[in-house]
Write a structure and sequence with these properties.
The chain is mainly alpha-helical. The protein contains ten helices and three strands. Strands 1-3-2 form a three-stranded mixed beta sheet. A hairpin with a 7-residue loop joins β2 and β3.
């Protein structure tokens, strides 16, 4: 450590702490088994980062790294991570083969806060060739409006190429229809027609908020990136004021 430029007192303290930890932190009885686990985990993570990330996510909560950190690390190692899809996702996170060396990681419904496995089982059982929209989902299995709102906020209908604000607006019709026994006999349209509206797309910031509220993560950008211009401006202002 001294050859590498560290102060002698600092080096002595570090060595003393390491020595003390070695006496009780990892007894020899644990060393071999721990070494095997570390080696196997490191090997899988290096050669199969897609499998490693998927397995960790399906083992959550683990008390170590959050799902957001695991996904960010997987993306940094070349793994394509795809959003939860109402027509493709399962309860657990899964791997999809698209002919590439590394599988794509498809997020599962288990990531949505407040969504039960029983509801997801019903969604998958009646999915068939896929759902066309939230109303179609409600029509088939009569999920509660609050559950459908959870799915929309988690962006599960992104493959329909509709923005979340418009889908949330349309979902209000389900709430109104849910209590109308008069329409129980209708087989094609069991919700009242709503006047079409043009709503602006959500801003990136609004989408990030919904992502973290429902999934505790986002596949778009890191929240700090949106704040960086303001942080940079504030830093420059403070730096200039101190210089003066």
């Amino acid at each position: 450590m001294q050859k590498n430029g560290y102060d002698k007192d600092f080096a002595t303290k570090c060595f003393s702490q390491i020595s003390g930890f070695g006496e009780y932190g990892f007894p020899e009885s644990h060393a071999a088994s721990f070494a095997i686990l570390v080696y196997a985990s490191a090997w899988i993570k290096y050669y199969y980062p897609d499998v490693f990330a998927c397995a960790l996510l399906n083992s959550q909560p683990m008390g170590f790294y959050s799902a957001s950190q695991i996904i960010r690390d997987a993306k940094n190692h070349g793994v394509k991570v795809k959003e939860i899809c109402i027509n493709k996702s399962e309860w657990n996170h899964s791997l999809e083969n698209h002919g590439e060396p590394c599988f794509s990681l498809r997020l599962g419904f288990r990531q949505i806060k407040g969504l039960s496995k029983n509801d997801v089982d019903r969604i998958i059982k009646e999915r068939g060739n896929g759902y066309n929209d939230p109303q179609d989902l409600w029509h088939r299995i009569r999920l509660g409006p609050s559950i459908i709102n959870l799915l929309i906020k988690a962006n599960c209908f992104h493959s329909l190429n509709k923005n979340r604000r418009l889908l949330l607006w349309d979902a209000q019709a389900i709430k109104k229809t849910n209590s109308l026994a008069l329409f129980e006999g209708y087989s094609e349209k069991e919700y009242l027609p709503e006047k079409s509206v043009n709503l602006p797309n959500m801003t990136l910031g609004e989408e990030l908020i919904l992502d973290y509220q429902s999934l505790r993560l986002s596949l778009s950008i890191h929240p700090v990136k949106l704040l960086r211009p303001f942080l940079k401006k504030r830093f420059i202002e403070e730096y200039c004021s101190r210089s003066v």
